[in-house]
């Protein structure tokens, strides 16, 4: 199964709502099960450098079917996947990339959020991934 | 002046409406005055290869402040700008990239549409650029 | 607001003056509010590898609206933004990239300096950002 | 011999003067004998897409020690160097890239101009290459 545009829009809408509540300016990207960009939104005055990071977070999460923050633990110096970020035209491995699953638990896409602290990025992404229906 | 997210969303909404009327599956990208991605939407089952093309069309239009199809006339073999597409990490110079202007005529961004014939791509982009308010 | 060429030239002139005082050979880049290159100058016999670094420092500062050195603290192993440098076609996150603001405090561009120690790079960039009028 | 920063600045100054006389908004790049960027200037509101084109024109001219327009004749379909633009991370082979020579005729650098018609680009580049002392 693949995320629909309607679901992707809902996820972005949820992320926008959460970001506004928290007073944050976010870049938000959704990719589908094929790791291809489905929807993207940049809030007014959000960081320009976070366009690419939001997209890379969403892709990275789907590339390895895990949250970007989990991958980041493994890519530290001395760890098993050190510098995996060099693959796939660049990965982002700190928090803010979260999988989107359907009701059966199957991965149908992923969302990446960038524009604030990694904690805020992760919170907004998680909220959106849980409220896209 | 720079396009706002609200205006970019309206442009994409207009493009979606027009595409649905015509029975088309489009990728739609909006960039701001700095040629940075502001919003993107891919309709269900739209061509995957058109993600990048839609984004490049929007950027190309803003890069040179002209419709992509106009630039394409000049980049043909023997014409003044042959192979200009090799610049800027890749341009797309066939129709479907259109400028977005404010009421005073100032360029505030651009829209790129890809997913059908270049005529349809151009029609949808033009409609959206005229109906984003 | 966007930096003007006149302001960018003044910033580079200030950077050249400061560099000459310190006996340094610098590469100096200025980008506008859209992170697009506005002006660049390489002093005679300055490092060739610093052309790209100066440009990337200026872009990085504007991408995230902070000095490159601040971002670099966050991108160390174990820190929140480890390996963020893989985004945006390559970032530079050590000192030498500084924001340029107008009198109201709005960011209108950024300057990147590379060619000496990071302390000297930072000093020259800061001086220029404070003396571009 | 290599172009000095002073000479590069003079070339850009000449290009700015000529562009202003003609009412044009240009991007102007100068590279040295090693094809490395020495100086760059973008006039206010000049095309964003011409940043990269001006730099590539200057590099292309020096890469092959000929004007870009000359190379462009050879890169047309059926000609000897068809699609040479794919090399060197992208070449630009239409007019506007001109060699800068010292008084003995030795090539010391090149200038690339982009922002108007190729005729205007070429005129400004030629003027600057002849008036950099």
TrEMBL record, chains A, B, C, D:
Domain of life: Bacteria
Protein name per Swiss-Prot or TrEMBL: Heme-binding protein
Organism per entry: Antarcticibacterium arcticum
């Amino acid at each position: 199964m693949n995320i629909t545009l309607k679901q992707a829009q809902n996820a972005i809408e949820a992320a926008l709502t959460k970001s506004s509540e928290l007073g944050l300016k976010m870049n938000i990207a959704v990719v589908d099960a094929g790791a291809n960009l489905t929807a993207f939104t940049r809030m007014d005055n959000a960081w320009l450098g976070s366009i690419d990071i939001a997209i890379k977070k969403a892709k990275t999460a789907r590339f390895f079917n895990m949250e970007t923050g989990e991958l980041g633990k493994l890519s530290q110096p001395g760890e098993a996947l050190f510098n995996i970020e060099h693959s796939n035209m660049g990965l982002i491995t700190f928090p803010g990339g979260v999988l989107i699953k359907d009701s059966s638990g199957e991965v149908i896409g992923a969302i990446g959020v960038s524009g604030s602290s990694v904690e805020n990025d992760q919170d907004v992404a998680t909220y959106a991934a849980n409220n896209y229906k």
